Task: structure prediction
Amino acid sequence: MSRSTRTARRNRTSRTTSSGTAVRRRGSGAVAVLGAGALLAAGVAAVPGPGRAHASSHREAPLIATSPQLDNTDVYAFVSPDKTDTVTLVANFIPFEEPNGGPNFYPFAADARYNLNIDSDGDGKPDVTYRFTFQNQDKRGTSTFLYNNGPVTSLDDENLLFRQTYTVQEIRPGKAPRTIVQNAVAAPSNVGKASMPDYQGLRDAAVTDVQGGGKAFAGQTEDPFFLDLRVFDLLYGGNLTEVGQDTVAGYNVNTLVLQLPKNALALNGDAARNPVIGVWSTTERRGMDIVTDDGKNRDWGKFVQVSRLGNPLVNEVVVPAALKDRFNALRPDQDATVPQLVDRVQNPEVPQLIEKIYGLKAPAAPRADLVEIFLTGIANAANGPIKADLNSQLLNKDVDPKKVVPAEELRLNTAIPPTAKPNRLGVLGGDLGGFPNGRRLSDDVVDIELQALEGAAATGQIVPALAKGDMVDANNKGFGGSFPYVGLPEYWPVNRALPKG
Result:
C-alpha cells in the first residue's frame, strides 16, 4: 500500500470557449468506470465526473489514491462518555499523513463539501446533514515556502502563514440551511516543537461552540484507527505470522468532530421515543472547473458525491473491486438496488478465503446475521439470527416500517449509556455500548468484524481459532476523556510502537 503524501495532480482535459475561457473536465475516466447506468442510479447527471476521487477509507478503492483530501478513512458515533445527553460524531480524512510531510502539510480541500449524515427514520436518506466547508488564508505568496516563519503560540499568530477557517451548516429536507458554526479556525498541522511549542494549547483553542448547543472541532489529529493491514497478504501471511503491527501507528489524519444534543439527531426531535440513528459521511466536489483568461480557477457544475463511509471496512473487505467506486457514488437507500452488493453481504468473500487457507469452515450462506449488522440494524430478539433489540430504526416509536429499507449505515442506539470500562470487542464482549452499536474510538473493529464474518454474532460465541485476531488490540496513543477525545497529532520522532500490556 502506497503511503505517498504528495498532492495528487488533477486529471483533466480542456477546451477553450469562444470567450477565451478554458473548461477543464475532471476525470472523464470516472464515467467510463461507472457507466451511464450507474451514474443515473446514483443520482448523478451524465456529465464529466471528478476523477480525482470516488472512494473512501484507507485507500481501498481504485480511484481514491488520486485525491487523499476527500478520502474519508473512518467514521465514529458514540454517546459522549462525559456528557451523556449528547452524541459525538467523528470523521477522519487523508490517510497515512506522514508527520514530517512539509512544507505544505495537510489542509482540508477548500473546494469540497464534507458531510455528516443522519438517518433517523430508516429510509436510507439523510434527515439532517451537517456540512463543513473550508476557506484558505494563505499569506505566503511569493515571499516564502514556509508554513510558519516563527513559533506559533496562538491560532491568530502572525507567524502562522497558512490557516483555514470553516463553516458548518445544518441541512434538513424542506427547510432553509441553518449556519451553526461561522468562520471557526481549524487547528493547523503539527509542524513540530520548534514551530508549535504548545500544540495542546492550539488544539484547545480550536474547539468552538455550536449554535443551539454542542461543540465542533476541525484539524489534524493522530489516526485513532488501529489494525494490522497485512490481512491483505492472503490473511496475515497464510499462517497468522504477519500480525501484531499497527499499520497506521505514527500517522496522522485530518479530523472533524461534532458533539450535539441527542434530540437534535433524533426523529421528531425526541430521542426518548426515537433513540436510534444511522450515521455515514460523504464528501462532494464539483464536476468541472473553469480557468478564465485571467488565469483563475473557478469550480463549476453540480456537486458530485465522491466518497462515502459508514461501517468500517465494508468497502475494503466486503465490496468487490469492480463495485468499489460505484459503492462510493451510491446513497444508502440505493444499496439494495445493486444485487451484487447485497450478495456480497449475504455471501462474503473473507470466510471463504479463511476456509481455503486455514480450513475453518465458512458459515452457510445466505448470511442473515450480516444483513442485520451492516444493512438493517439489529432488532428481532425473538426470531432473528442475532437475539437482540439493539440498533435498528424499527425500534423508534415514530417510524413507519413500510419506509424502512436495507442501507449500509453505522447505526447507534443513543439510549444505551456509555460503559465505564469499555470492552474492545463491543457487543461481542457483552458491552452493548460498542460496535456494531455505533463505534467508539477504542473499539477493535478488525477483530469484531472478523469474528462476525465467521458467525460469532449469530452464535454468541467467539471463534476460538481466531480469538487473537490481528493482535493489535489498542491504539498506540491514548484517547482523551473529554471533547474532542482524539489524540494529538504525531510529530518527529514518530512513535510506531505498540502500547505495552
Remarks:
- The two ends are 29 Å apart (CA to CA).
- The chain has a mean pLDDT of 85.
- The chain has two domains: 12-320, 341-466.
